[in-house]
Amino acid sequence: MAITDDLKKTLTDPTPLYFAAGTADLALQQAKKVPGLIEQLRAEAPARIEAVLDTDPKVVQEKAKVAQEAVTARVVEVFGAIDPKKLGETAQDLALRGVGVAAEYAVRAKETYDKVAEHGEQAVRAWRGEVADEIVDIAGAVEPEPAAARPAAQDAPAEASAEASSEASAEAEDKPAAKKPAARRNGTRKAAAEAADES
Question: What CA–CA distance (Å, rounded) separates 186 from 10?
Answer without folding.
Answer: 46
